[in-house]
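Session log. Operator J.P. requested a structure for one protein chain; no other inputs attached. Running the standard single-chain path with token output.
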Amino acid sequence: MARKPKLDETLAAAKDRARTALLAITEDATIGEHVDVICDGDRLVTHRFVTLQPGYEGWCWFATLTRVPRAQAKDITVCEVGILPGEDALLAPAWVPWAERVRPEELDAEREAREEALNGSTGESVAAQEQDLDAPDTTETGEADEADELLESAELEEGKG
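Structure written below.
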């Protein structure tokens, strides 16, 4: 049976070293009060601090520290720093596959639209639109006729002269 690791008093007292390590990833103004020390293993602890970062309510900054046996406080090594959600942190919901996210009424609406397209109920409106596209545009035709008439009259006058 594995024994429970003993809290290293030197590392547990190194709150200032942990706070200083956090300055590598954030500003001092975003680091709040010291929350606790967690014993992760022999000569391995994690210090947690309240996060004052806007938008991260309930999160904690952390700094994990270690040291070799019989080392002094000045020989403490920073293993890792970061930010983790606490129990009260606001987190994004778990990812849900598309097939499970779609509501039944959305499926019904999609099914109805597909059936209408297959049955041709929207075919009448499509046919009407196509008929409108095939019809000649009277404004363009009228302008073309006027241009033709002007050209013909100009040619006639040239022929007379």
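Operator note: The chain has a mean pLDDT of 84.
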